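Supplementary Note 2. Why include the ligand at all?

Several targets in our set were suspected to adopt different conformations when bound, so apo predictions alone were not considered sufficient. For every target with a known small-molecule partner we therefore ran a joint prediction. The input for iron/sulfur cluster is given below.
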Amino acid sequence: MKRVLFLIGQIGAGKTTVSRVIADATGAAFLDIAGQRHASTSLRDQVARLPTERVVIECGGASADFEAVLESLVGTALTTIVKLVCPPEVAIQRKRCATALRLPRYGGNWAPHVLWTDTRLRSVPADATFDTGAVSLAEVSAEVISLWERSRPLSAPTGNLSFSALALWERCPLAYRFKHVDNYPGRFPRADPIIGSAAHAALAWLYADESVVPGLPAFLDRFRAAVSRTTPPGLDDLRTKVTEAETALAFHYDTSFRTRQDRTVGTEVGFSLDLGGGLSYSGVIDRVCESQGGWTCAIDYKLTRGRRFLASNVPDMLQIETYGVALMALYRLPVVEVRRHALPTGEEEVRRLTLNDIPRVKSAVRRWATRFAADHDYAPLPTKLCGWCQFRAPCPAPYVA
Ligand code: SF4
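The joint prediction is reproduced in token form.
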């Protein structure tokens, strides 16, 4: 069976350089299909015809047929997917330097291309993600080669999974084990989940009945009451965070709730997606509404500020795309909209999904779940996030600055 390494990633993140270094170091054949749409069967044949056992493919990864390409190689190749990202401003700067005055092929400037690619890549799970704005390409190449050496065939997972469980495992497998396998009681209760749950409970109440318009004080009281109900004693950093959340909720009340043109269809709408082969994926959509233009929308409210560069391996946009797929199934719709709404700023990342997106989204979640199910080591992944980890006390290897 062939061993195929896909280097996907942001424009200007160093895919070509890293691909060539790895191909040279491992004796692999190198294929550049970045920026191309291609019939998946033709790529399978192309890979099969290459004389080497190893193949490095440089590929944008943002094209809609990327999951189909991967599926077409199942049974004929063992695939490893590595994502190279960098902050959008770094990508734009590199592109300007690299191309002088040359503009993108389809006109305009690089910024929209870079931002679109950034969003799209955030719905593609990968075996590893590297921020080439922070790590040298030589280091990335060495780490990718080591990862590629360790890749092995994985069996299909079964059971029920959720985004939060998968995201925690991706951030630190050991933290996942403490929480979901060992049911270890977190020694340090964290403010963020308490405030997040309280804010979502207050929003669900605010939007629950379209015929009633609660005032802002009642909305904020609802939030504070939820915080008090769920806060354990000894959580000292809560006051500042509660004030920040109140500011964000008041901003949302004034700029979104009071001026809304849409109609709420449901709040906290639960779903379970059947991914086939005994695997399912469940979640809860914060709010479903019908927009003035007639679109049915799934909205995910976040207490974090607007668009953030995500250097982690968590495919956060895949979360809202699963909401879109669930919405199409629940309400039997051919097209839906999904929105990630930042409460402190009102910024929204919006995607429109059609029935054609369902196989891609399901395939992406299955791939992600397959990697997760194959992990039986639950190795610690120390990062700066250890400072907020509930399991610092039992952890044998917390991050030390
Ligand atoms: S302290 Fe860090 S390494 Fe340890 S479990 Fe928590 S996140 Fe993982």
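The pocket of iron/sulfur cluster is lined by residues 172, 174-175, 380-382, 385-386, 389, 391-392, 395, 397-399 (CB under 6 Å). Residues 2-153 form a domain with the Rossmann fold fold (CATH 3.40.50.300). Comparable summaries for the other entries are listed in the accompanying table.
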